[in-house]
Design a protein that fits this description.
eight-stranded parallel barrel; about 270 residues; 8 strands; alpha/beta; homodimer; about 45% helix; TIM Barrel
């Protein structure tokens, strides 16, 4: 998928929602556990009920890896299901990878070629040659961690250099000079809305994936205030708030209702131009 | 495995070698490709021939993930094979993971419980609460990226704050105050031997995993000069230099010879006390 196609989908659906598929067997409705592949069956139902309200799905690979080979099969089935039935959806492998050059190429192939994800999240610590192998793939996006939503995100990311530039700002600035940097998106947590103004000065056009709305306490309006661009430029992720809205037989309806609630809020923001 | 057991193995084998099992189907001998699981078969032969010369094996998970579910099966078989036949070996899942708390816990379970690795490499960018879930596991080690061997390692890791402290030094210092920090090891590339003196002042006792000797140009003696401790405290990794010493039918003998060459060098260093 290219950037324009993503923007078109946002306009068509009046939504810049991303639903995080962080599936935990201890949290999904009990009646699904008797099925052969409960994780996939859960995802399938959530996807079928919400695909018209969201522009992206983001499975966090840790939740699948935790179940070993079975988990990887569930992930494979999930991404194939989305690509086959809802090819207009932007898919994100939330894997937070990053390694030296030839190894990053391996990861990029695994997620972009084999699994056919549109994008993958990558950690910046190892620098340019750990990220550029991902950027080499056309019509694919590399979503670089910048300012994360967790408490520990402040341990290193806001350290200042001699000139007062913080690490996450350095990451934003430096990465803009990397080869194929137009294929970069960034992760900035919704728990840091006050940073968006500064961030948009450095990256006025790149899409930002924003976790942390809902369960982690981030506020949608606050994020949009400075984060929105003319092309919207935001993907707001919600995982637990939507997929675990109920742990009962009504989980599909409840998830759909939650997703619709967020979509309606986003529709208003898009229509009002904020 | 606990730290003392690792140290004992180093003394018994007079080796602090770690062999990186970064298996690439394009690089292994052609005659193995007709077998059902060439990756595992390759590893098995390398392991059987070198287990007495090395104290650790380190599969880089990217190489396995690149082959999808088949690759994960090869990884699973490899770690089970080592644990069953050579339980004295220290095993490292070179996965460079790191995510928010509950997600890191998932990764930790996958690598420590399910696959039963002794250790896993973790990226520090997301801070304390992304790493502490790994540290919660007793007799398991978390190997934190500090100063990596690749060119891009210098993009962010040596950025200095107002007080002249570099990012990698901050990572070393900060992480020492995290819960269960005695279960930390660190990655420092062999391509940066001049940094070891400084590093040992911050972490006098933690083990350091050192990639980059050989193919990437790092020098063993240089690293040992400042990196060695009374308990040795180093694991020197070699991947390509050993496992791809030959791509022919003699690959097992050639790999063994290369590993022995490094072990002999290490034996001299241990005996001379450097």
């Amino acid at each position: 998928m290219n950037k324009q196609q993503l923007i078109d989908q946002i306009k068509i659906k009046r939504s810049f929602l991303c639903i995080g598929l962080d599936v935990d067997l201890e949290k999904i409705p009990k009646h699904l556990l008797v099925l052969k592949d409960p994780i996939f069956e859960f995802n399938k139902r959530i996807i079928d009920a919400t695909h018209h309200l969201t522009v992206a799905y983001k499975p966090n690979t840790a939740f699948y890896e935790a179940y070993g080979i079975k988990g990887w099969k569930s992930l494979e089935k999930t991404i194939h299901y989305i690509n086959k039935n809802y090819p207009e959806i932007f898919t994100i492998a939330d894997a937070k990878r990053g390694d030296i050059g030839n190894t990053s190429t391996r990861y990029a192939k695994a997620f972009f070629d084999d699994l056919n994800f549109d994008s993958v999240t990558v950690a910046p610590y190892m620098g340019s040659d750990s990220v550029e192998p991902f950027l080499a793939f056309a019509d694919k996006f590399t979503i670089l961690l910048a300012l994360t939503s967790n408490k520990g995100g402040l341990d290193f990311q806001i350290l200042k250099d001699e000139n007062g530039t913080t690490l996450y700002e350095k990451v934003l600035k430096e990465s803009q000079s990397w080869k194929n940097s137009e294929r970069l998106m960034y992760v900035v947590g919704a728990t840091r809305p006050d940073y968006f103004k500064k961030i948009r000065k450095i990256i006025p056009n790149n899409f930002i994936l924003v976790p942390g709305v809902g369960a982690q306490g981030g506020d949608l309006m606050e994020v949009c205030k400075y984060g929105l661009t003319d092309e919207i430029g935001l993907l707001i992720n919600s995982s637990r708030g939507i997929i675990y809205a109920s742990d009962n037989k009504d989980f599909v309806e409840k998830a759909k209702a939650k997703a619709m609630e967020m979509q309606k809020e986003m529709e208003q923001i898009i229509l009002s131009g904020l």
